[in-house]
């Protein structure tokens, strides 16, 4: 068959080959498209399944996170409540410590004042004791001298007995004595014994009960003994 050739155009055979090649390519493309579509659908189904699983996992995880958040929020609330209680306890403890410190300070101040008062009192007592010791020492010396000079001593029982020596010039060791008793209820002195007897002992005793001057009474009685001793000595001389 004679081929009609058109300048610049393909031959019928060449066109057929080209169409066959194109058809083959289209078929191949279609198969690839179907294969790609199946793959895409398979991947989509896989992704949907995976996404669902992941969604469920994320949902469960979110639920767990929410529960953990609630637990942590409650724990945080308990923590801050405990912190607040701790602050209140610390504040209360500080108040008690401050009150205790103040009480201790007050007691120490009272103790110091008491010690100062005791120190002052002890100083006064010490001064009085020193003064009294001085007076007692002076009195002891005076009494010792008085006893030595006048020869006087005392004996005590129900009555007080005054014994004198150094009265009789002829016999300095001779004893002159008298005993008196004090009735506390009546606040009155009475003569129990007088050796040798003194005529004026009665008036002297009355004077003692009026004035309560025992030392004056003792000196007066000794003078009466001295007078009596000198009178007796004068009688003996004559």
TrEMBL record:
GO CC terms, sorted: kinetochore; nucleus
Pfam families, per database record: Spindle_Spc25
Major location category of this protein: nucleus
Highest taxon in the source lineage: Eukaryota
Protein localization: Chromosome, Centromere; Nucleus; Chromosome, Centromere, Kinetochore
InterPro entries: Spc25 (IPR045143), Spc25_C (IPR013255)
Residues annotated as domain Chromosome segregation protein Spc25 C-terminal: 158-226
UniProt keyword annotations, A-Z: Cell cycle, Cell division, Centromere, Chromosome, Coiled coil, Kinetochore, Mitosis, Nucleus
Gene Ontology biological process terms in this record: cell division
Record-stated family: Belongs to the SPC25 family.
Functional description taken from the UniProt entry: Acts as a component of the essential kinetochore-associated NDC80 complex, which is required for chromosome segregation and spindle checkpoint activity.
Subunit and partners: Component of the NDC80 complex.
Protein name according to UniProt: Kinetochore protein SPC25
Organism: Riccia sorocarpa
